[in-house]
């Protein structure tokens, strides 16, 4: 493999759930940080997370002083009768100096483009644009500069999409919690709790999650549905329906998805080769220890692409869901 | 769970009165709230909930209720007669590591080194508020600013040594053993 010039190295896009998380990501080597406001306009609307308006301004200033970009996610779908909340999110993110807005709702994309013709816009993974036609529509109609691809594509599919999307850039997830659904089209959380990541910004909202100990086992339920029973000492995962373990033909199986984390570090050179512009680390709901460790490791890995070097990231294993990793759909190695 | 203090320490502590411990804990909590006066704001609707912080290797439990710019704390022997909204349980050195950002709460949960019960939303709000507070030993102890750096480094070294001795989960981030 040829060594690359630093300018052709993909951007490392890192999560920040709190102002402290943003500073941690910046200090750990993020090229850009993504975050959102403390309301239902962003897809990580969990208790205690996110930024008020003043915190967003201060966070962006902190990042800009250190040459790091901030991408503000206003990436849930607008609720009829309450669209001003989302429009205000766009207005305030632009006023705060966001380098790009990450949007999903097509009407909000239209509003942002018409109101702020020069603002850089990214298409959220929540929009589930996974065909050349869908990406071309957003690119040609609204000038979308980058599309975040769903985590259900293979590397070959990403290569073809990246080639046809240009000059629109592509961004792919490389580490963190894995969503096996075509994001924006999952109804499991809504079914169980009445709340969804796409509308209210919470998948399996903690207000509907219950844990209890039963004879040493950890039993997790969501909206009254028991979704998992972890035996004593067995690694645990998030209490989502998609990662639940259910009785099927007398066997307890992870019916939809195993509780594992995506780790595509070994694929970074290939993804860079096919022209992916940005690597995204999932985890705005995670703590500073996670952000610091993962961002430092991936920054080393991204920098190593330039020199064709290899990097050991086994230190990340302890931070993964279920204490297990996968390359997910990128390799599609399963049945 | 990993990182238990030796049982003889728990046994020795069980004969000590709780009042001095409660007075010290109250002072430390007041220090923390003084340097982070907006702490409870981040809790949102969960401000005013009572959290049982349970060091499972110690013969006492802290009952903490953060509200506006202050927080109340009580120390009890056990939770059988206590009213609380959520319980967060782990060995003492693990709980301390969650306060100062040594550990990622999700990772501790995945590895079963942390148990949560009760109002899961309130637990999450508290975890995120603590994460954002960036508390460190010198802030909580109310030490003068000019000694924060060396004092925190010395404390981190001592706690890491203790965690290794107790076979506690390995820290990640800036406080990893190798850093």
Please give a handful of descriptors for the protein shown.
heterodimer; A: 335 residues; alpha/beta; TIM Barrel; eight-stranded parallel barrel; 15 strands; B: 179 residues; alpha+beta; Nonspecific Lipid-transfer Protein, Chain A; five-stranded mixed β-sheet; globular
Describe it.
The complex is a heterodimer of chains A (about 325) and B (about 180). Chain A is about 30% helix and about 20% strand. Chain A has nine helices and 15 strands. An eight-stranded parallel beta barrel of chain A has the order 1-2-3-4-5-6-7-14, surrounded by seven helices. In chain A, strands 8-9-10 form a three-stranded antiparallel sheet, with no helix packed on it. The longest helix of chain A has 19 residues, at about 290-305. Chain A is globular, with a radius of gyration of 19 Å. A five-stranded mixed sheet of chain B has the order 3-2-1-4-5. Chain B is α+β, with helices and mostly antiparallel strands. Chain B has a single domain (about 5-175), classed as SCP2 sterol-binding domain (Nonspecific Lipid-transfer Protein, Chain A, 2-Layer Sandwich). Chain B contains seven helices and five strands.
List the helices and strands and how they pair.
The complex is a heterodimer of chains A (335) and B (179).
Chain A: E1 11-15, H1 19-28, E2 32-36, H2 53-65, E3 69-74, H3 83-96, E4 100-103, H4 106-115, E5 121-123, H5 132-142, E6 146-148, H6 155-165, E7 169-177, H7 188-193, E8 209-214, E9 217-222, E10 225-230, E11 245-248, E12 251-254, E13 261-263, H8 268-273, E14 278-281, H9 288-306, E15 325-326
Parallel strand pairs in A: 1-2, 1-14, 2-3, 3-4, 4-5, 5-6, 6-7, 7-14, 13-15
Antiparallel strand pairs in A: 7-13, 8-9, 9-10, 11-12
Helix pairs in contact in A: 1-2, 1-9, 2-3
Chain B: H1 7-13, H2 18-35, E1 51-55, E2 61-67, E3 70-76, E4 86-90, H3 92-99, H4 105-110, E5 115-118, H5 120-133, H6 137-141, H7 148-165
Parallel strand pairs in B: 1-4
Antiparallel strand pairs in B: 1-2, 2-3, 4-5
